[in-house]
Amino acid sequence: VLRTFRLGEADRIVTLMTRGRGKVRAVAKGVRRTHSKFGARLEPLSHVTMMCWQGRELDIVNQAEVLDTFRGIREDLARVTKAYTLLEVVDQLAQEGQANPQLYDMVVGALRALEESDAPLLVPAFLLKVLALEGSAPTVDVCVSCGAADDLVAFDLNEGGVLCRSCRRGRSLSPEALELLRRILGGGLASALREPAGALAEELTDLATEATEVHLDRRLRSVRTGPTE
User: Fold this and answer.
1) DSSP characters for the chain?
2) Neighbouring residues of 157: CB distance < 8 A, sequence distance ≥ 6
3) Residues whose CB is less than 8 angstroms from the CB of residue 8 and which lie 6 or more positions away in sequence, other chains included
4) What pLDDT does residue 178 have?
């Protein structure tokens, strides 16, 4: 479940990411009543299996069973905020009725990893991997302006990659951050997720967040304000 909206006095519209149908919007009737059979099953972050009646514009939830509530995330506000960032990005990228099993598997896998360990680089790594899935991975091997392979010292969000000292513009990029970018995008994700919190993790987080916001052409509300219904 990506997010929910109130509908009338007792119903709720639920936005879901599915493996076979992409993004789906469905009405959960009576879900806000205390005796609702669905109750908390259809809250954001819930991983569920569902049966719906397919409607012209909105499906109707007929049955929902919980596969995972991600309780370990819900009980930690810091992890909740990170999880909502993942959900918001998926909500913006997923298309209704268009299957995207890779994106589905990525967000489920990221949530499971977040529940197991609050790795400082999990969210920025997810954002960078999503950009790669979208065909918008930043160029990290050579200067995007002149093609130079050495002395890469900056990152330009609009250019979409790293820049050498002669072409530098945008934000400064430390050598350590460049090495981490290459590891995340080049198959070294597991080792990158073992990196500790600190200035380097913050640098990668800021860069990945801003790169994603440029790609989406919008601010990530969950990053700026925290989770909301």
Assistant:
1) --EEEEETTTEEEEEEEETTTEEEEEEETTTTSTT-SSGGGGSTT-EEEEEEE--SSSEEEEEEEEEE--HHHHT-HHHHHHHHHHHHHHHHH--BT---HHHHHHHHHHHHHHHH---TTHHHHHHHHHHHHTT-PPB-SS-TTT---S-EEEEETTTTEEEETTT--SEE--HHHHHHHHHHHTT-HHHHTTPPSSHHHHHHHHHHHHHHHHHHTS--HHHHH----
2) 170, 171, 210, 211, 214
3) none
4) 97
What is the mean predicted confidence (pLDDT) over 152-176?
Answer: 95
In the block, tokens 């969210």 appear at 123
Distance (Å) of CA 74 to CA 6, 43, 100, 122 = 21, 11, 26, 17
Cα separation, 136 vs 33, in Å, equals: 44
Q: What is the pLDDT of residue 225?
A: 62
CA 73 to chain centre: 15
Is residue 35 predicted with pLDDT exceeding 90? no
Give the C-alpha separation, 13 to 105, whole Å: 23
Tally the residues of the chain. Answer: 229
pTM of the model: 0.91
pLDDT at residue 229 in the model: 45
Asked if residue 36 has pLDDT above 70, the reply is no
CA gap 157, 174 in Å, rounded = 15
